[in-house]
Specification:
By secondary structure, this protein is mainly alpha-helical. The protein has a single domain, classed as Na+/H+ antiporter like fold, CATH 1.20.1530. The chain has a two-stranded antiparallel ribbon. Strand 1 and strand 2 form a beta hairpin. 50% of the residues are buried.
């Protein structure tokens, strides 16, 4: 436990570590804002700085290995996505459903082809083709948590482009999951006659759509009745606990369906329309969004700092790794930026394109999965390849919010 030798209570070390996380998050965010960059970019860089200190300063705590930080970070991104969902309604999302689908499909196919081609050209001859395929898969995922935070900072979360980005990222998560299942199945099937796991992929897709369909239909029908019943309770301050309980429940159910928990949390916010919680909001004289906001500003920075802290700085300094990472990042940025064209007329395609760029935690999940797969008795992704892919994901994670913040400021109406 960090700082355990300095205090009598071992848990106090965790408290000190979290105090450090919140301080560097706010300092990093402040520096980024002064440089006219989104605060989340500064929080990611602050996490990378903590990773450097953990490896260079004896006794400095390693944030990436802190279970408490991991828990708070997961809580932060789930609350963040719940808050993003609260800013839109199902009818609003349906109004941008087709553009979101087009953006998501382009945003999966083009980066995957680009990543596959880049890996095939840059990696040594004789590298199994499934390695190139898996690297392409790592570039196809979008981290909605990062773009959602930038959209919130710029007051654009409820804009047409904001809803297209979030909707596309939800579809992107399902498609990316299928890609991961398919590529992993291809690796497992090497040397056997079983072929690709089409049955498994079909079940995964079916479960994903069953969950989303049930949440957006049965959930919208049941929630008004449940909150109307809750209004009869005599207890005080029911709105926030019930809202969070619903968000965590759908996040859990989403994970059972094979989706990321953030998709379930977003669906929960989307379902909880103002009309459903109107009676409790009147009774407590507060809006649910206003109650959730302090939780977002408190816990979401932990998630972004931890993401930066999970990168091994030593793996990013080798020239070959840096070149590999930079080229993959360039291909990843271009591939996702092109997806903005799928939004069609009437949308700011540059906003949608940059909003789809960050990879973040979703891409890192893909890398972690690749590190556990074996080909010919060796790890599918070598340590050098892992470092290059992680470096590329970090670059897109920083470039995405920078580009999105820039285009949102440029396109903002003049006051």
């Amino acid at each position: 436990m960090p700082f355990a030798l300095l205090v009598a209570d071992p848990f106090a070390g965790t408290l000190a570590l979290m105090a450090l996380v919140w301080l560097v998050a706010k300092l990093g965010g402040e520096i980024a804002l002064r440089l006219r960059l989104p605060a989340v970019a500064g929080e990611l860089c602050a996490g990378l700085l903590l990773a450097v200190c953990a490896r260079m300063v004896p006794g400095f705590p390693d944030l990436a290995k802190s279970g408490a930080a991991e828990t708070l970070a997961n809580l932060g991104v789930i609350v963040l996505m719940f808050a993003v969902g609260l800013e839109s309604t199902v009818p609003q999302m349906m109004s941008v459903g087709l553009p979101s689908l087009r953006v998501a499909v382009i945003g999966v196919v083009v980066p995957m082809i680009a990543g596959f081609g880049g890996a095939w050209l840059l990696l040594p001859a004789g590298t199994p083709i499934v390695v190139d395929l898996f690297i392409g898969a790592c570039l196809c995922a979008t981290s909605i948590g990062i773009s959602a935070q930038v959209l919130r900072e710029q007051g654009a979360a409820s804009s047409f482009e904001g809803r297209v980005i979030v909707g596309a990222a939800v579809i992107d998560d399902v498609l990316g999951l299928l890609v991961l299942v398919g590529v992993s199945g291809a690796v497992t099937a090497l040397g056997s006659a079983t072929g690709l796991p089409w049955g498994s992929m079909g079940r995964t897709l079916g479960m994903a759509f069953l969950f989303l369909g049930s949440a957006l239909t049965l959930g919208r029908w049941a929630i008004p009745h449940l909150f109307h019943l809750a209004n009869r309770f005599r207890s005080e301050q029911l709105l926030l606990p019930l809202g969070l309980a619903f968000a965590f429940l759908l996040a859990w159910l989403g994970s059972l369906a094979g989706l990321a928990t953030i998709v379930g949390a977003y669906a929960a916010g989307l379902i909880l329309e103002p009309a459903h919680v109107h009676l409790l909001e009147q009774r407590e004289a507060q809006r649910l969004e206003d109650l959730v906001h302090p939780l977002v500003t408190t816990f979401a920075p932990v998630f972004f700092v931890l993401m930066g802290a999970k990168v091994d700085p030593a793996s990013l300094v080798a020239p070959d790794t840096l070149l590999f990472a930079a080229l993959l990042a360039l291909l990843g940025v271009l591939g996702k930026y092109v997806s903005g064209l799928g939004a069609g007329r009437g949308f700011r395609t540059s906003v949608v394109g940059w909003g789809m760029v960050p990879r973040g935690e979703v891409g890192l999940i893909f890398v972690a999965a690749g590190s556990t797969l074996m080909v010919d008795g060796r790890a599918l992704l070598s340590l050098e390849v892992q470092a290059g892919v992680v470096g590329a994901l970090l670059l897109t994670t920083v470039a995405g919010p920078m580009g999105l913040g820039w285009v949102l400021r440029r396109s903002a109406p003049k006051s």
